[in-house]
Amino acid sequence: MKEAKPALRYAKAILNLAKESGNESLVNDNMKSIVSTIAESADLDAMLKSPIIKAADKRKVLAALFGDKVDNIVKGLFNLLEENKRMIMLESVAKQYSIIYDYHKSMQVAKVTTAVALSKELEDKIQAKIVALTGNNASIENIVNPDILGGFILRVGDVQYDASISNQFNELRREFDNSHYIPKI
Q1: How far is CA 61 from the centre of its chain?
Q2: pLDDT tens, residue by residue, 143-161
Q3: pLDDT of 15-70, one tens digit each?
Q4: CATH number of this structure's domain 4-104, picked from the four choices 3.30.70.3400, 3.90.550.10, 1.10.520.20, 3.90.180.10
């Protein structure tokens, strides 16, 4: 966690550059791509964190891997992190960028837990529910958990809406436990 503050400073600087060029949305997509690529590849993550591999070699790998897929601002970030010998911070910088980008755009992240993956129709309905609950749009992050049986659990900031079947079963169980129903024998 000692890299959190420097990563935030780098992310703010990158956002400022991106705003000046009007590419903040493209850079955000690039940063999300970097985070997902690092998360999917244990070898890439190990290479970036390795103290043995030179920063220049790490930058060359990133340039070969992302090449023309990323904006020039992101390529500049690769170079800057190489110069400052902070390539280990790339993933943190990318995550911080996405967070402050969402804040800048007044976007929230809505975590939606469902028993199965969301379809486009369900995403639209959930987006409408988010607007009804918070008054703002949000980007939707789907978490699949078969234990909820059906329905969904929506969490946006500190607001949680639980419309899951497992929650309804639990409420029914509590209602039976609290009732003074005495069965006839």
Answers
A1: 24
A2: 888 888 888 888 877 778 7
A3: 999 999 888 889 989 998 999 899 898 999 999 899 999 988 998 998 898 888 88
A4: 1.10.520.20
Residue closest to 14 by CA, chosen among 6, 22, 4, 24: 24
Domains in the chain: boundaries: 4-104, 108-178
Give the C-alpha separation, 178 to 164, whole Å: 21
The structure tokens listed for 50 are: 């390795």
CA angle 126, 127, 133 (to 5 degrees): 85
Contacts (Cβ under 8 Å, ≥6 apart) of 74: 14, 27, 30, 31, 34, 66
For residues 71 and 108, give the distance between their C-alpha atoms in angstroms, rounded to a whole number: 24
CA atoms within a 13 Å half-sphere pointing along the CA-CB vector of 3 = 17
Contacts of residue 48, defined as CB under 8 A and 6 or more positions apart, other chains included, come to: 38, 58, 87, 88, 90, 91
The model's pTM is: 0.65
Provide the terminal-to-terminal Cα distance of the chain, rounded to the nearest Å.
Answer: 62
